[in-house]
Automatic annotation (TrEMBL):
GO molecular function, one term: pyridoxal phosphate binding
Species per Swiss-Prot/TrEMBL record: Humitalea rosea
UniProt xrefs under PANTHER family: ADENOSYLMETHIONINE-8-AMINO-7-OXONONANOATE AMINOTRANSFERASE, BETA-ALANINE--PYRUVATE AMINOTRANSFERASE
This protein's UniProt keywords: Aminotransferase, Pyridoxal phosphate, Pyruvate, Transferase
GO terms for biological process, alphabetical: biotin biosynthetic process
Gene3D superfamilies (alphabetical): Aspartate Aminotransferase, domain 1 (3.90.1150.10), Type I PLP-dependent aspartate aminotransferase-like (Major domain) (3.40.640.10)
Cofactor(s) in the UniProt record: pyridoxal 5'-phosphate
Protein name: Beta-alanine--pyruvate transaminase
Length: 442
C-alpha cells in the first residue's frame, strides 16, 4: 500500500466539489492521496494526522486490512445482486450484525447508501406506519433548529441549518421545528452534558398545542448535533422529549449517523443516554466509510404494523438499487467484527477523559468563546470577526492542514472526531497544532 503513488490530476475543473469553495480550492488545492491508520498522506507523501475520522466516519482508522480483504473477496464472488424481490446472503447477515447492536426491540434494519437516504427513509417509514394504523392524518414532521439530516428534501425540511435550505426554495409542507439546545450564557465551557436546557424539550408540547397531536407523525433529532458545531443535549432533555412523544403517540427518530458505532463509547447514543427512540438512522461508521452504506433501524412494532399489517404484495414502496449492496454488506460485517474484536467502544471510553481534558485545555487560547465535548467529539468555538462570520474557522482549518493535522470547520467552530484508535500522543499533537493555528489567526 505504501508503494502506491497517485499523480497530481492535470485538470481540476471537471469535478464540481460538494460542500466546497470550488474557486478557492482549484486555485489552492489540498489533496489527499492515501491513508493508513491515523493519518492521510498528500501526493508528495506529507503526513496529515486525521482528527476528524475522515468526515466523522472512519472510526476504526484507515486502510484496515480486515475490511479491505473482505471487500476484495466479495468483489470476486458477487459484485452486485438486486434486492427487489431477491436477496443475497451477506445483506441478511449484515442486518443481523447491526441488529445485535441496536437497543432491545429494534431488530428490523432497512439498508440505504448514505445518511441522507437514511433520513428520508426514516421519515417515509414514520408516515407509512401511521397510515398502516389508520392514522393517515399524522403527516406533520418535526425537526430542530440547527439540526442536520443530510441533503434530501425530507432531511433538509426537518433540518434547521439555514444555508442548507435557502438556495432551494420551498421545502416539504407540514414541518415545524423545536428550538436548538445551545444556551451559551448558561452552559459555556461545559464538560460533557450541560446542566441547563432540559426545559427546551417542553417546546414540543407547544407544537402539539398549535397543530394537534393527531397531526404529528414524528420528531427527528440528532442526540448530539454534529455538523452544526457539536451541541450536546442538556441533562434530562432527551428523557423529557421521549416522555412527550410517548404521551402523544409521536414517533421519536434519532439521527445516529455521527453518534453511532463507538463515537460516544457505545454502539449508539441511545445506549449512552439510556433513551431509546422508535426509529434510528445510521451510516458513516457502519462500513468504516470503505464503501458507502447507510441503514435505518426500527422498532419491531413499526415493522409489524407496516409489513404484517398489509395485504399480500409489496408492503413499503421504497428502496434503492444499491440497498444492501454485496460489497457494502461485506464491509459492514468486517467493520463490526473489527469493532468487537478490538473493543473499539471500550478504547473510546478509556481515552475519553484524556480527550476531554485536552479539548478544555484550549479554553484559554485567544479568541476561544466556548469548548464543548462528549464521547470522542470536540468543538472549539471561536469568536467571529465582525462582518466575516466563518473566516476564522476556515483559516484555522487551512493552517492546521498545512501543519499536518486535519480538523473540520463548520462556521467558526472547529469540530473534531478522531478515529477510535487515537492515542494520547495523537491527542497532544492535535491540540498543540490547533493552539498554534488559533494564536496565528487571532
Amino acid at each position: 500500500m505504501d508503494d502506491i503513488r497517485v499523480s497530481r490530476p492535470n485538470d481540476l475543473e471537471s469535478l464540481w466539489m460538494p460542500y466546497s469553495d470550488n474557486r478557492y480550492f482549484k486555485a489552492n488545492p489540498r489533496l489527499l492521496a492515501r491513508a493508513s491508520g491515523m493519518s492521510y498522506y498528500t501526493p508528495d507523501n506529507r503526513e496529515v494526522l486525521d482528527a476528524t475520522a475522515g468526515l466523522w466516519c472512519s472510526n476504526a482508522g484507515h486502510g484496515r486490512r480486515e475490511i479491505v480483504e473482505a471487500i476484495q473477496r466479495q468483489a470476486e464472488v458477487l459484485d452486485f445482486a438486486p434486492t427487489f424481490n431477491l436477496g443475497h446472503p451477506l445483506a441478511f447477515e449484515a442486518a443481523s450484525r447491526v441488529a445485535e447492536l441496536t437497543p432491545p426491540g429494534m431488530d428490523r434494519v432497512f439498508f440505504t447508501n448514505s445518511g441522507s437516504e437514511s433520513a428520508d427513509t426514516a421519515l417515509k417509514i414514520a408516515l407509512a406506519y401511521h397510515r398502516a394504523r389508520g392514522q393517515s392524518q399524522r403527516v406533520r414532521l418535526i425537526g430542530r433548529e440547527r439540526g442536520y439530516h443530510g441533503v434530501g428534501f425530507g432531511g433538509m425540511s426537518v433540518g434547521g441549518i439555514g444555508p442548507n435550505r435557502k438556495q432551494f426554495g420551498a421545502m416539504l409542507p407540514y414541518t415545524d421545528h423545536l428550538p436548538h439546545t445551545h444556551l451559551p450564557e448558561q452552559n459555556r465551557f461545559s464538560r460533557g452534558q450541560p446542566r441547563h436546557g432540559a426545559h427546551l424539550a417542553e417546546a414540543l408540547e407547544s407544537i402539539v398545542a398549535l397543530h394537534g397531536a393527531e397531526t404529528i407523525a414524528a420528531v427527528m433529532i440528532e442526540p448530539v448535533a454534529g455538523s452544526t458545531g457539536v451541541l450536546v443535549p442538556p441533562h434530562g432533555y432527551l428523557q423529557r422529549l421521549r416522555e412527550i412523544c410517548t404521551a402523544h403517540g409521536i414517533l421519536l427518530i434519532y439521527d445516529e449517523v455521527i453518534t453511532g458505532f463507538g463515537r460516544l463509547g457505545t454502539s449508539f447514543a441511545a445506549e449512552r443516554f439510556d433513551v431509546t427512540p422508535d426509529i434510528m438512522t445510521m451510516a458513516k461508521g457502519l462500513t468504516n466509510a470503505a464503501v458507502p452504506m447507510g441503514a435505518v433501524a426500527t422498532s419491531n412494532d413499526i415493522y409489524d404494523a407496516i409489513v404484517n399489517g398489509s395485504p399480500d404484495g409489496i408492503e413499503l414502496f421504497h428502496g434503492y438499487t444499491y440497498s444492501g449492496h454485496p460489497l457494502a454488506s461485506a464491509a459492514a460485517i468486517a467493520t463490526l467484527e473489527l469493532h468487537r474484536s478490538e473493543d473499539l467502544n471500550g478504547r473510546a471510553r478509556k481515552i475519553e477523559p484524556y480527550w476531554q481534558d485536552a479539548m478544555h485545555s484550549l479554553a484559554d487560547a485567544p479568541g476561544v468563546a466556548d469548548v464543548r465535548d462528549f464521547g470522542l467529539i470536540g468543538g472549539i468555538e471561536l469568536t467571529s470577526r465582525p462582518g466575516a462570520a466563518g473566516a476564522r474557522g476556515t483559516e484555522v482549518f487551512r493552517r492546521c492542514f498545512d501543519k499536518g493535522v486535519l480538523v473540520r470547520a463548520t462556521g467558526d467552530i472547529i469540530a473534531m472526531s478522531p478515529p477510535l484508535i487515537v492515542e494520547p500522543s495523537h491527542v497532544d499533537r492535535i491540540v498543540e497544532t490547533l493552539r498554534e493555528a488559533i494564536a496565528a489567526i487571532h
